[in-house]
Amino acid sequence: MSDIEEFDPFEDLSDDELDALLAQGAGFDGIDVEEAPAADRAQGFRSGFVALVGRPNAGKSTLMNACYGQKVAITSPVAQTTRRRMRAVVNRPGYQLVFVDTPGIHKPKDGLGSELNRSALSELNDVDVVCFTLDATKPFGRGDAWVAERVKQSSAHKVLVITKADRADQAQVMAQIDAAREEVDFEDVIVTSANERFNVDEFIDLLCSYLPEGPMWFPEGMGTDTTDEVQVAEFVREKVLLHTREEIPHSVGVICDYFERTKKVVRIHAIIFVERDGQKGIIIGHKGEMIKRIGTDARLDLERLFDSKVFLELDVKVKAGWRDDAAQIRRFGYAADE
Ligand SMILES: Nc1nc2c(ncn2[C@@H]2O[C@H](COP(=O)(O)OP(=O)(O)OP(=O)(O)O)[C@@H](O)[C@H]2O)c(=O)[nH]1
């Protein structure tokens, strides 16, 4: 066994050691926006934060990626894919928009679910614009009304964003708009399809029109404040979500505990945590086929992301009941105040 394989942040490290590791960026968001470098800008520069909120699966992450022009947040058909507030910076001449993708707001079934809700709701008053994302293909339900009620209480500008218009007819879209408008007095409504890039640029222009005068929060060229280790953990988790079914996706947490970039190659080690031995067996698969598939798919994505050859090594470990354990949720980086 190599040193890397023996490394387990949950079992071998004290809390202090783990904190020191995390401070270096292992698995967690790195930059505090408050301390982000603010470049001097000519007067009239406008900037601000835009939160995408809505039910799980509404298409928030896909829309943010489309606005950014590259994959920064993972997406999947599995509800509650997003567990971290991911930020993506979009620059336009005279403007800087910082998108904040939030976890889908839902009725929580465990500690993790409650934490995800807290994380999403905490953004509502911390941003300049709140975008209520509403899936055009699903009828407006009680869950949507609940989210709408929270949006209504936000002091930010409010925009209704209908998503997945490519899969809905006009009557469905109109019904969604009418239902949402019954709940909230939106300042604007826009119908989009991230998949077909329909109204994506128009959406960005619309958001820019709401931005207050402000500094450049992130230097040009910095697209996200997410660390390499967080990107790795998220991309690996996405492949688990895409290749597994039923309870597995919700039981999985991933941490990247080794990341080394040289001129020629990126070497990575990540651990996939599940809650039960049976789940570990499913992730590994018959003769290791499943873990191999997850690893290959994640590696291909990471090679694109880092524009480099990547060596990715994965381990699978069991951490029973982590979703109801606040300390573990925090260690994965899924806590609301991360
Ligand atoms: N047809 C179509 N599908 C879309 C579009 N946008 C998103 N989807 C699909 O909808 C599903 C959910 O998308 P996500 O972007 O992960 O949704 P989310 O709101 O971030 O979900 P959570 O992480 O659960 O909060 C995925 O299967 C996407 O491919 C779109 O414009 N058109």
Structure report:
It is a single chain. By secondary structure, this protein is α/β, with parallel strands linked by helices. The chain folds into two domains: about 5-25 and about 225-330, GMP Synthetase, Chain A, domain 3; about 35-210, P-loop containing nucleotide triphosphate hydrolases (Rossmann fold). Helix content is about 35%, strand content about 20%. It has helices at about 5, 15-25, 60-70, 110-120, 140-150, 170-185, 200-210, 230-245, 250, 275-285, 290-305, 325-330; strands at about 45-55, 85-90, 95-100, 130-135, 155-165, 190, 255-260, 265-275, 310-320. The longest helix is centred in the C-terminal third of the chain and has 18 residues, at about 290-305. The protein is globular and about 55 Å long. The relative contact order is 0.16. The chain binds guanosine-5'-triphosphate. The site of guanosine-5'-triphosphate has 24 residues, from α3.
Keywords:
338 residues; GMP Synthetase, Chain A, domain 3; Rossmann fold; 12 helices; binds guanosine-5'-triphosphate
Structural class, please? alpha/beta
* Low confidence ranges: 1-13, 21-41
Strand content of the residues, in percent? Answer: 15-25%
N-to-C span? 33 Å
**Distinct small molecules:** guanosine-5'-triphosphate
In total, the number of strands is: 9
What is the number of helical segments per DSSP (H or I, 4+ residues)? 12
What is the domain tally?
2
Mean pLDDT rating = 87
From N to C, what is the helix and strand string? HHEHEEHEHEHEHHHEEHHEH
So, the CATH homologous superfamily of the largest domain?
A: P-loop containing nucleotide triphosphate hydrolases
The CATH class of the largest domain is identified as Alpha Beta
Question: Per CATH, what is the topology of the largest domain?
Answer: Rossmann fold
Q: Describe the sheet with the most strands.
A: 6 strands, mixed
CATH architecture of the largest domain: 3-Layer(aba) Sandwich
Instruction: Give the fraction of residues assigned to helices.
Output: 25-40%
Rounded to the nearest angstrom, the radius of gyration is 20 Å
Characterize the overall form. Answer: globular
- Strand order across the largest sheet: 2-3-1-4-5-6
